[in-house]
Amino acid sequence: MTCIDILESYNMFVVEDKNSREFLINELKLEFEGNIARRDGIIMRKEIVILLKSYLENSK
């Protein structure tokens, strides 16, 4: 799950599973504290989907 704070210009990510966390660490260079990561700057879900699709296609 990702939430956007448009006033402060950042995303918060909440991740439960290892594969999703790995993807976000590798592709978005996030650092997690527990299941939560913060990314400065806004990235939209549609941008994440494009990255995820590419990641999944390349990991076959």
Describe the structure.
The protein is an alpha+beta fold. It has one domain (2-58). The chain is built from 2 helices and 4 strands; from the N terminus they run ββαββα. The chain has helices at 18-28, 45-58; strands at 2-5, 10-14, 32-33, 36-40. The chain has a 4-stranded antiparallel β-sheet with strand order 1-2-4-3. Strand 3 (32-33) and strand 4 (36-40) form a beta hairpin. The longest helix has 14 residues, at 45-58. It is globular and about 40 Å long. The N and C termini lie far apart (24 Å).
Q: Kindly report how far apart the N and C termini lie.
A: 24 Å
The total of beta strands comes to: 4
Uncertain residue ranges? none
Number of helices: 2
Element-level helix/strand string: EEHEEH
**Whole-number mean pLDDT:** 92
Based on CA atoms alone, the radius of gyration comes out at 11 Å
How is the biggest beta sheet arranged?
A: 4 strands, antiparallel
Strands in their spatial order, largest beta sheet: 1-2-4-3
Structural category: alpha+beta
